[in-house]
Specification:
Elements: E1 20-21, H1 27-34, E2 38-40, H2 42-54, E3 59-60, E4 62-63, E5 73-75, E6 82-84, H3 88-100, H4 119-123, E7 137-138, E8 144-147, E9 151-152, H5 154-159, H6 161-164, H7 173-179, E10 182-188, H8 195-207, E11 212-218, E12 221-222, H9 239-246, H10 248-258, E13 265-266, H11 269-296, H12 313-334, H13 338-366, H14 372-392, H15 397-411, H16 434-457, E14 465-471, H17 475-483, H18 485-492, E15 494-500, E16 509-513, H19 515-522, H20 526-534, H21 538-547, E17 550-553, E18 558-561, E19 566-570, E20 576-581, E21 584-589, H22 594-615, E22 624-629, H23 635-640, H24 642-649, E23 651-657, E24 666-669, E25 675-682
Parallel strand pairs: 2-11, 10-11, 12-13, 14-15, 22-23
Antiparallel strand pairs: 1-3, 4-9, 5-6, 5-8, 7-8, 14-21, 16-19, 17-18, 20-21, 22-25, 24-25
Length: 683
């Protein structure tokens, strides 16, 4: 037996007489109309829904129930004569005829005014059961006709909603025609045979056309183990408790960016925590940084906007990235793909705005006078934050509205009182510099590889290193790398960057197949392809790194490989460590001499002093006086880097002393278990 999905008890099916709509007569039209619809995902439209139409059966319309819309069909007792009523006007006329022929004593719709569309007029009648069952009509031969007892399938109600909501065709004809078909609908994938079909069928039957232009077929929200949530299984998450605990914005952002709306989502609150920390936390810290220094300098955007061509390169880069983001987000949303839109925004905020732009520009905000360079930095960061608020508002409506209001409160730049009333940003093609974006992307990726090696080798970033070597794969790459050389060295705390030929014997690469991606491509040829990849020469590896493609000719077919299909590694050189990211390779000199060690100690001291400034609640502009207790392991490092330490910490004086009597002295600990004391005072 089949079993009830709620109770797991056996279910018996009985054949019943039913009323059908002969949808098979318009099967070809239904299939043709389906091809006009933009399905997300496309596979649901061509697959699940398309196959349902290809194997279409007549629509079983009737249900043996009590509550719902009665089937408007009246039949004689022998069933030889039937009438289908199409409106209340028809029913009222038919009732009058029944009364005139003596079948009914009175017309139950006598007081109903056909052309009166008011609520009072319609409230005066009831055409549901049991009242409608008392209406007996008369056939053309004078026989009584009673209504068929069944009701209409409630999915017919849902499919008729585009017309019912406007009381079409009796009212609002112009409004309906202006708004039909719908631009967009969304429902669960289980509605393939429900709402999606009934909308499509009724529209095709009545108008010969589609009911909706675009549709997102939502996946299911599963538990973290991929099991469908159910009260019976006890694995359902209470949405209200989740929103109370984590907030609506974080929950929405997690659900939209974690999986495409049409894919099933393995719901895990740990993912919401990560979103709060990684995206919202980063955005909050970026705004807090901006607000702190903008308040110090009383920045209100009252100055004329600085000409784009006069901006520093780092500002032009982030403005270019912002306009690329606006272009991409607009395209993704236009294509009904909010997941890619959200991920693009998150990537911009975390990797480009916070981890790169703000970090590289910190000095511009807290050092020096209120110059044009500082104003440019304020204007640029403000523009980015404001644009992010508007771009993100559809996914994160509350947080982004607050961010927008807080920004606008200080500047009055926008007339719109809410982010949801603001115009959506439009990208400016002339502000997009793809070459600059490529240069900066290379700088970020190389820096990331170097910092990754540092982490792996347990060499802290504050410890300077001597040299990076990078193979220049092309003349264009070499020119781009020269332009960002100093930036890479500053970010990675390395002194030299040397470009070497990709043919250099210093770097010998190895390659092996990535079975995860190759499996689908190669199928039964997997073993043969893996063997050919293992035999790749250095020239083969170089080709695929430069072109991101390689055609592997087999006896029966050709396999097109990309970098994703390979795992490329390199042997370390003595004293050096290698890092690889797709076509990029870096070699880092990890050998430390005495001078480098001393510089590392000096940087550690700057960090500890800055922490003490914060703990002492000094203003970021306060000058200080420093005294440091002598220690054999640090004396030389401090003396040889005295100017650097003073400049970084706003110290007007720094002394190495044999004894510190100050009650405000603080104990600090450096690497290698070096401990000493520092006294810090305002100047």
């Amino acid at each position: 037996y089949p079993h009830c999905w709620r109770t797991d008890k056996p279910v018996l099916y009985y054949p019943l007489d039913s009323w059908f709509i002969k949808t098979t007569e318009v099967k070809d039209k239904l299939i043709a109309n389906n091809k006009k619809i933009n399905w997300k995902p496309e596979s649901t439209g061509s697959g699940r829904f398309g196959q349902w139409l290809e194997n279409l059966q007549d629509w079983n319309l009737s249900r043996s129930r009590y509550w719902g819309i009665p089937i408007p069909i009246w039949s004689t007792k022998d069933g030889d004569e039937r009438i289908c009523i199409g409106s209340l006007a028809e029913l009222k006329t038919a009732c009058d005829e029944s009364v005139n022929k003596g079948i009914m004593d009175k017309n139950p719709l006598a007081d109903f005014s056909v052309n009166d569309m008011s609520r009072d007029n319609y409230n005066g009648i009831n055409v549901h059961r049991p009242y409608v069952d008392n209406i007996v009509l008369v056939s053309s031969t004078g026989e009584p006709m009673k209504r068929e007892a069944d009701l209409i399938d409630v999915w017919f109600d849902s499919g008729a909603m585009p017309y019912a909501q406007w009381h079409y065709p009796f009212e609002n004809k112009e409004v309906f025609e202006k708004n039909y078909p719908a631009d967009f609908i969304a429902e669960g994938v289980d509605q393939t045979r429900g709402w999606f079909f009934t909308l499509h069928a009724i529209s095709t039957l009545c108008f010969g056309d589609i009911a909706f232009k675009n549709v997102i077929s939502n996946g299911l929200v599963l538990d973290k183990n991929g099991i469908k949530m159910s009260k019976r299984l006890g694995n359902a998450t209470d949405p209200f408790e989740t929103i109370d605990k984590y907030g609506a914005d974080a929950t929405r952002w997690y659900m939209i960016t974690n999986a495409q709306p049409w894919d099933n989502l393995k719901f895990n609150t740990e993912g919401i925590e990560e979103v709060k920390r990684k995206f919202f936390g980063t955005l909050y810290n970026t705004y807090s940084f901006f607000a702190m220094y903008a308040n110090i300098d009383s920045f209100t955007f009252e100055e004329d906007k600085i000409n784009h061509d006069s901006l520093p390169e780092i500002d032009r880069w982030v403005i270019s990235e912002l306009n690329t983001l606006i272009k991409d987000v607009d395209s993704h949303l236009e294509n009904y793909d909010p997941t890619r839109a959200g991920r693009a925004i998150q990537n911009f905020v975390v990797d480009k705005l916070s981890n790169w732009y703000v970090r590289l520009c910190r000095r511009r905000f807290w050092k020096g006078e209120y110059t044009e360079d500082k104003i440019a930095a304020y204007q640029t960061l403000y523009t980015c934050l404001e644009s992010v608020a508007v771009l993100s508002s559809s996914i994160s409506p509350f947080y982004m509205d607050q961010l927008y209001i807080d920004l606008n409160k200080a500047t009055g730049n926008n007339q719109a009182e809410s982010v949801h009333l603001a115009d959506f940003p439009t990208y400016q093609e002339n502000l997009i510099d793809t070459d600059l974006e490529e240069r900066m992307s290379n700088a970020q990726r190389i820096s990331s590889l170097v910092l990754g090696i540092r982490k792996k080798e347990n060499i802290r970033v504050r410890q300077p290193l001597q040299k990076i070597m990078v193979p220049a794969s092309s003349s264009k790459f070499e020119e781009q790398l020269k332009a960002v050389k100093e930036l890479i060295l500053s970010e990675t705390n390395v002194k030299e960057l040397e470009m070497i030929s990709p043919d250099s014997d210093m770097l010998v690469k190895k390659v092996k197949p990535n079975f995860k991606t190759l499996g689908k491509k190669c199928g039964r040829n997997m073993k043969l392809v893996a063997g050919r990849i293992n035999d790749f020469t250095q020239d083969d590896i170089k080709t695929i790194e430069q072109n991101n493609s390689y055609t592997l000719a087999l006896e029966t077919e050709e396999i097109e490989l990309t970098l994703d299909d390979l795992v490329i590694t390199s042997d370390d050189i003595p004293g050096w460590k290698i890092g690889i990211d797709s076509e990029l390779t870096v070699a880092l000199d990890v050998t430390l001499n005495e001078e480098l060690k001393e510089e590392g100690i000096a940087r550690e001291f700057v960090n500890r002093i800055q922490n003490l400034r914060k703990e002492s609640q000094f203003e970021v502009t306060d000058n200080i006086v420093l005294k440091i207790l002598k220690h054999d392991s640090i004396n030389s490092a401090i003396n040889n880097n005295l100017k650097y330490i003073c400049a970084e910490t706003l110290s007007t004086s720094l002394e190495l002393v044999n004894e510190i009597n100050s009650t405000s002295k603080a104990k600090i600990e450096l690497e290698d278990n070096i401990k000493t004391f520092i006294a810090i005072e305002k100047n």
